[in-house]
Amino acid sequence: MKRTPLFAAHEALGARFVDFGGWEMPVQYTGIIAEHQAVRQRAGLFDVSHMGEIELRGPRALAACQALTVNDVGRLHDGQAQYSLLCLPSGGVVDDIIVHRIAPERLLLCVNAGNTAKDLAWVREHHGGAEVVDRSAEVAQLALQGPRATDILMPVTDLPLREIPSFSFREGQVAGRRALVARTGYTGEDGWEIYCGAEAALAVWNALLDGGRPLGMAPAGLGARDTLRLERALPLYGHELTEETTPLEAGLGWVVRLNKGEFIGRDALRRQRETGVQRQLVGLMMHAPGIARQGYRIFHGPDAVGAVTSGTKSPTLGKAIALGYVASTWKEVGTKLGIEIRGRTSEAEVVPLPFYKRAV
Fold first, then answer.
1. Per residue in 217-230, pLDDT tens?
2. How many whole angstroms separate alpha carbon 218 and alpha carbon 61?
3. Are 35 and 160 found together in one domain?
4. Which candidate, 187, 202, 222, places its Cα nearest to that of 24?
5. Beta partners for 132?
6. What is the rounded distance in angstroms from the CA atom of residue 327 to the CA atom of residue 319?
7. Are residues 31 and 168 in the same domain?
8. Residue 301: which domain range?
9. Same structural domain for residues 285 and 344?
């Protein structure tokens, strides 16, 4: 399995490791619930160096990105980022990504770790005359998330963090190392994603740990990352998003800009928007014991009407929650459904998303 530049640091902290898309990654240190609560209440530091980084460069970079993605990169200024999707001609999702406009002739795509090779091949196939550069091996990425994240990062950077809006980024120094610092994240909390050279990762990690501990920050693993993103109803590729699901089915129609011009998947998504989706991603709250897991069938009466994509017991809410696709007939909030758990049907209800919203 692949390892990030911080593997030895995780070992020293007593991390438990799992195979995540071919990467040996820390799933937890002291415990998922404790790490989850640290992020919600104070701050957590994640190593996400397994994520992929692909750059589009040259005079055709912006046009190529516009044709590859469903959102409108033409709306971005230098220093702004955007959530978007790569789609197939069928409208199915190749991956969900973050696009960073560094300059008109240089865009950085942050892609999911397990999809890096696939995404790279897709982008190269549809490069539109842009230069495609895979920077994944040379770039490390750390995610500092939580209400105290800015206070922790400020002493070790020269950047004016409080002047950087959400989904914007700046380039500067962190712990004396060159870095791109973006106000983005995957937890539902305010925070930062820090891109630096792989050789600089340990220095940045240690500086943030040392500065963060007095403020109650904790190193956090993939276990907490998953429960945090699920409370916020943020999709995970391979669960809510696949090549067989479309952005409209996943409730991501807000990123699909059909009027921006041609892009891969536009015709299929336009047709689906006109005719309506046959199934919809919904939030589910359990009213009976048991945790719904990916693949568990969802019922309305005796009829199977969908399947769970993700589920857990919410550390913040203290209740079992899940995401799943159901036939559109049963998508309305308040609809009573059943989830088959170990041969028995447990009562659940469609609830508004997200399950959790941070206080502003």
1. 999 999 999 999 99
2. 39
3. yes
4. 222
5. 56
6. 24
7. yes
8. 278-360
9. yes
CATH number at residue 153: 3.30.1360.120
Mean pLDDT of all residues in 290-309: 97
Q: For residue 360, what pLDDT is reported? A: 74
CATH (domain of 74) = 3.30.70.1400
State the Cα–Cα distance between residues 147 and 324, nearest whole angstrom: 29
Q: Is residue 182 part of a domain?
A: yes
Cis peptide before 354 (omega within 30 of 0): yes
pLDDT digits (tens, 9 = 90+) for 83-116: 999 999 999 999 999 999 999 999 999 999 999 9
pLDDT of residue 283: 98
Q: What is the per-residue burial (b if ≥16 Cβ within 10 Å, else e) of 151-162?
A: bbbeebbebebe
213's tokens:
């501990």
Give me the number of domains the chain comprises. 3
pLDDT value of residue 82: 98
Q: What is the pLDDT of residues 7-24, one digit of tens each?
A: 999 999 999 999 998 999
Mark whether 141 and 227 lie in a shared domain. yes
Alpha carbon 148 to its chain's center: 20
- What span, in angstroms and rounded, lies between the C-alpha atoms of 184 and 194? 9
Q: Which of 147, 150, 188, 184 is nearest to 317 (CA)?
A: 188
DSSP string covering 13-64, please? TT-EEEEETTEEEEEESS-HHHHHHHHHHT-EEEE-TTSEEEEEESTTHHHH
Say what angle helices 32-41 and 222-231 make with each other, to 10 degrees: 60
DSSP calls for 161-212: GGG--TTBEEEEEETTEEEEEES--SSSS-EEEEEEEGGGHHHHHHHHHHHH
Work out the pLDDT band at 359, boundaries 50, 70, 90: confident
Do residues 110 and 130 make contact, with C-beta atoms less than 8 angstroms apart?
no
Whole-prediction pTM value?
Answer: 0.96
pLDDT 10s digits, 195-204: 999 999 999 9
Helix H or strand E segment including 123: helix 116-125
Answer yes or no: do 116 and 65 share one domain. Answer: yes
Q: Do 307 and 283 contact (CB within 8 A), yes or no? A: no
Could you tell me if 179 and 172 are in contact, meaning their C-beta atoms sit under 8 angstroms apart?
yes
